[in-house]
Structures are given as C-alpha cells and as structure tokens.
Design goal:
Chain B: It holds the Pfam family Polysacc_deac_1. The structure holds two protein chains of two kinds. Chain A is of the alpha/beta class. Chain A contains ten helices and nine strands. Chain A has a four-stranded mixed beta sheet with strand order 4-5-7-6. In chain A, strands 8-1-9 form a three-stranded parallel beta sheet, with helices on one face. In chain A, helix 2 links the parallel strand 2 and strand 3. By secondary structure, chain B is of the alpha/beta class. Chain B has a single domain, classed as Alpha-Beta Barrel (TIM Barrel). Helix content of chain B is 40%, strand content 11%. In chain B, strands 1, 2, 3, 8 and 9 form a five-stranded parallel beta sheet that branches. In chain B, strands 4-5-7-6 form a four-stranded mixed beta sheet. In chain B, helix 7 runs parallel beside helix 9. Classes of the chains: A alpha/beta, B alpha/beta.
Chain lengths: 299, 314
C-alpha cells in the first residue's frame, strides 16, 4: 500500500511562503530600518516566569522544565520554583545595576501567587507579557478553536483582574495552533514572541488585525544551552555577546536589528551563574547595544 | 494528585528579615557526604527499577562499592585536612554492612541523618505505615549504633509520598533536605512539629554536576567557588546556606579529588563562613528565626491555609 496521492500533490508550490501570515522578504530586499532609540542592535531580554505543577498531563507533550520522576516529583517542582522566588530576584538586581529593561512573560495562573514579583517587575520599569494560562495549557494544532479561544479569553480576564494590560504574548512552550495568532489578536495582544523569522520586527496578518512578531532566539535559549547542551555560563554569555557584536558591525548595510534572548530564572538565576549575566549585561553596554522591552521595540 | 504541594508558602527572596549566623557569620556552610548502600539484587519497585540496567548491574554496583572501600576514606582525609565535619546522608542499612565507616565518622563527631535504608528502596507506593516504619527504623538503628538521635532526612533516591513530611515532623525531625526552593531555610507546613527545609544545593550536587551537566573536575571546582562567592556576598544582607552534597564514588575518583580540594581551600580561606553541620544550622534557625519567618510571611499576606498536600486543612 503506497502513500495516499496527497503526498505527491503540492498545492502551495509557488513563489513565496506556503502560509499567508506574512510575505517572503529576503534580507537583501529589505530597506534598513531604524529602531526606536536609533541603536544598531537592540537587545530584547525575555525573562519567562513559569510554574511547573506536580501533576502535568504531558499532553500533547511535556513543557520544557516539566516534572520528570514519578509523582510527587518534589525535586523538579522545587528546583523550578526556586527560580520564581530566589533566582528571578538576582536577575532583577543584575538588570537594575545596568539600568536595563526587560520583558517578563508570566503564566496567567501565577499572577495571584506571585503578586510580590509582579509588583517588583513593574516597580523597576520592566514590561509584563502574557505567557498563556499555565504550562499545562499548551496551544497546538489538535486543540479545537473554541477551547483555545476560551483559554485566551481567560488569560486576558486574569490579567484584567490583576490590573494589567499586556500587549505582548508568549505561548507556553512557544507552541501554537494554526489559530493562535488570530485568537490572541482578537483578545488584544498585538505583539508575539513565538516566531523568529527575521532579525527585525515582522508584521503578521490575522483575521483580527496585525500582530508584530519580535524575534526571540531559540539557538541562544539559556535553558537549552546550559541545561540541555550542558554549556557553561561563560560559554553561553560569550555567544550572546558575539551575536550582538556581529550584528553591530554590519549595521550600515542592514540597519537596526533586534537580538532577543531569554534569561530563565531557575537556570541563569543560580548563584554560580549570575556573575556571567552581570558580565554579559555590562558587555552589551560596552559595545553600544541598548535594551528595550517588547512594546518599546514594536512601538 | 495535587498541582501544588503546599509544603511551603511563596516567600520572595528580597527584603526578608535578617538572619545572622553564630559568630556574626554570613554564610552557613555544610558538607553532605552521601554514604550509600545500593543492593546487588534489590526488589523491583513497580514505578522504578533499582538499577537502570537489569540486575546485577556489576559496573554500577562495584563503582559504588569502590566509593565505600576506597573513596570514602580519601574524602574523609581531605575533610580532616580542612577541619570540616561531614553531615552524612546515610543509607541506614550501611550500619550493618560497613561498621568501620560508621566508627570512623563517630570518632570525628560527624553528624548522621537518614537517607532511607538502601538507596535501591524507593518510597513510591508505600502506605503511611510502611513509610513510618522506614523512619522509625532509621531513628532506632542510628541511635543504637552511634548514640545519635537523627534530626534530618533526605528521602532515598529523592523519592517521596504525600505523607513524608508529616511523618518526619511527627517524629521530631528538625530538617528535611528534600526541598530545593531556596538558599535559606524555611518552615515546612506540616500538621504537627517544627520542621524546616534545609538548603541542600542540588544544583551543585556532584551527581548533577559530573553526571547530568557533564562537568570536568576543574569546571566543578570553578562552579563551587562561584556559588560560594555569590551566596557569601548575599549573606551580608541576610545569612545564606550553602551545602555541597557529595558521593565518594564520584568526587573521590583520582582524576577529581585534587581539583575538588581547590574549592574547599577557597571556602576554608574565608572567615565570614560558619563551617558547620546541618543539625547545628537547623537548631540555630529553629531557635532564632523560625517564628520570625512565619511572622514575615503572614505580614506580607503570603500565608496560605492548610498543610502539605492538604490545602483544606485550615
């Protein structure tokens, strides 16, 4: 029994993208852009605030950082929770010391529990973004639209109840369904941190208006590099600095660029890793890289 | 199954009431050699086999035996050299198998706490009576062999039940090493007793660093120094705790022990450090800071009802 005929039919085999969210545009055909503030490279620092419950369903897959051993996996529960109560404050201190503003996506179901953290983030001039409802509410292609719309509405309602009005959205596990962009835009989120198709903001079409995609580097993800790939904090930091320096040196040709990278509190917020973050942040300043929040970049 | 264990309340690291360790020290440092016994042919727990490979796993088994025959003594000499006492995370069964190790530790006034009976017997699936039997066996056996009443617990192979912490508190344990949410102690929400979570610094545990994170001996020493430097700096604001959890079958390997010594030398070279045992940290904390912490959590409006795995208890 061979494959069904559809495997040899190519309905989108034509110039440009095979989806209609945004158009194909090679870097060679893009006019250099000026980012707010005029810097050649703007760092978009993203600090994901996520809670990992003891009993994740693991469907459709486990969120990175989810429990590993049989219930009750207090080992992983508490090592993740360390980030939200201890590690994140080291990151806040390091950002404050360099006068750097960052974007903090937070799971909506943590707004109440982590209220003191939300207050500290706002008091220090950072931006709050939505990070879905929880790490167990993963948006994906197998989700029916009604359920997903209800999740997004619930996220907006929880932020409203907390007196917050975030514009930016990061999906749990950075996973989307085919409808996610439409649904978040309809709920008032016009910035999305899930996509990274360029080094500049990209306007994406939805059936409710435009969403600005801001690039967040997967290859520089701190958790992936230091935990999954077992690199040292110095190796991680020097790669972020190398990226910033590389982008800065050909700014004349390509204009302003965005370098988005994550600081995961339970990873980078460890005592032995935090001095590398301090060196990274001061190193960015030395090569003239400014940092802005998601809304600051998208305007 | 519950999403949140409710074993402790959320308590932001910033602006906590100040802890000062005895002698005006900023950082309480303790070292936790895990002295473990892994059985040659353990019964198979339905949720996890005793060994990752079929028994007998002769490489895994004999490397751990090497840790007790050779590695332990090498590590003990090193700690002697720096005047450090170990707080031993003990597979209680080892009292019967290797009394020479126990005698040597008793002679040095090291502390013992329970790490279960064998590290190949897990808590998964135990009912309350079974888990209580393990805890009572631990208290009785260590007291009979050493005269010490154990006050601390680290569940065997970090395996727990919803009842573990209530059982520890009922049996007048002072501290648990099973919770990794903080660099300072914190009261654990149990039905009775006065149990605290003792920072056990899993992130710098040699199993994690050499194994899961693939660190070289030199890299591990560097990590320990950085970890220490940061926690010492923060201890100025409020006293912190650093633990180095160790396993002789790993750290005492001939290619690792000298780089590890560099880290100990670095730590011992600072006089703002209280080099002590877990029991002494727990005692000082319970006597001076337990109530202060509970009051601060309440004053910040962060106290939640109930106890561990029982949100409705209040």
């Amino acid at each position: 029994m061979p494959l069904p005929d559809e495997h040899l039919i190519y309905p989108h085999r034509s110039y440009g993208m095979d989806q209609d969210r945004y158009a194909w545009r090679p870097v060679t055909q893009r006019a250099p852009i000026a980012l707010p503030g005029g810097a050649a490279v703007t760092a978009m620092i993203v600090v994901p605030i996520e809670h990992h419950p003891l009993n994740p369903p693991g469907k459709p897959f486990k969120h990175p950082g989810a429990m590993v051993t049989p219930y009750p996996d207090l080992r992983h529960y508490t090592t993740r929770d360390y980030g939200n109560r201890v590690g994140v404050y080291r990151i806040l201190d390091a950002l404050k010391a360099e006068g750097v503003k960052a974007t903090f996506p937070i799971n909506a179901d943590q707004l109440e529990r982590l209220k003191p953290l939300v207050e500290a983030i706002l008091a220090e001039g950072h931006e709050i973004a939505a990070y879905g409802l929880s790490t167990t509410h993963i948006h994906w292609g197998g989700l029916d639209r009604e359920t997903e719309a209800a999740w997004v509405a619930e996220v907006r309602a929880r932020f409203d109840a907390a007196g917050l009005a975030p514009r930016a959205w990061l999906s749990p596990a950075r996973q989307q369904s085919f409808a996610t962009l439409d649904l978040i835009r309809a709920a008032g989120f016009d910035i999305c941190l899930d996509w990274e198709q360029d080094e500049v903001p990209v306007a994406m079409k939805t059936d409710a208006g435009e969403v600005i995609g801001l690039p967040l580097s997967n290859e520089l993800d701190d958790r992936a590099l230091m935990i999954d790939r077992r690199q040292s904090e110095d190796e991680w930091a020097i790669q972020v600095l190398e990226a910033a320096d590389y982008l800065a040196q050909d700014a004349d040709r390509f204009g302003g660029r965005v370098l988005g990278f994550t600081l995961t509190p339970y990873v980078t917020g460890q005592p032995f890793r935090i001095s590398a973050l301090r060196r990274l942040l001061s190193g960015l300043g030395e090569i003239g890289v400014t940092a802005m929040t998601a809304s600051g970049i998208a305007r | 199954m519950q999403a949140d264990p409710n074993l402790y309340d959320h308590w932001p690291y910033r602006d906590r009431p100040k802890i000062v360790w005895p002698g005006d020290k900023k950082l309480a440092f303790w070292i936790a050699p895990n002295i473990e016994y892994y059985e040659f042919d353990p019964p198979k727990n339905p949720q996890r086999p005793g060994w990752p490979k079929p028994s007998p796993d002769v490489v895994g088994y004999s490397q751990r035996d090497w840790g007790n025959r050779v590695g332990h003594w090498r590590l003990m000499e090193l700690l002697d050299k720096y005047g450090m006492r170990g707080s031993i995370s003990l597979s209680v069964g080892l009292l019967d198998h290797h009394p020479e190790i126990i005698e040597a530790c008793v002679a040095r006034n090291w502390e013992f706490f329970s790490h279960g009976i064998y590290n190949t017997r897990y808590s998964y699936g135990m009912d309350e009576a079974q888990e209580r039997a393990v805890i009572e066996d631990s208290i009785r056996s260590v007291e009979a062999a050493t005269g010490q009443r154990i006050r601390g617990y680290l569940a065997p192979a970090l395996t727990h039940t919803e009842k573990t912490f209530d059982l520890l508190a009922e049996n007048d344990f002072w501290y648990t090493c099973d919770l990794f949410q903080d660099d300072q102690p914190q009261p654990v929400k149990t039905r009775t007793g006065k149990l605290i979570s003792m920072p056990y610094s899993l992130e710098v545990n040699d199993v994690i660093t050499y194994g899961a994170l693939s660190m070289s001996p030199w890299r591990y020493a560097d990590v320990l120094k950085r970890h220490f430097d940061q926690l010492l700096e923060e201890g100025e604001k409020s006293g912190t705790v650093m633990c180095i959890p160790l396993h002789a079958y790993l750290v005492s390997q001939p290619h690792r022990i000298r780089p590890f010594e560099d880290a100990l030398r670095h730590i011992a070279g600072h006089d703002e450090v209280w080099i002590t045992t877990a029991r002494e940290i727990a005692q000082h904390y319970r006597d001076h800071y337990f109530d202060q912490t509970v009051a601060d959590i309440a004053a910040r409006g962060l106290a939640t009802p109930g106890t561990g795995f029982d949100h409705a208890a209040a």
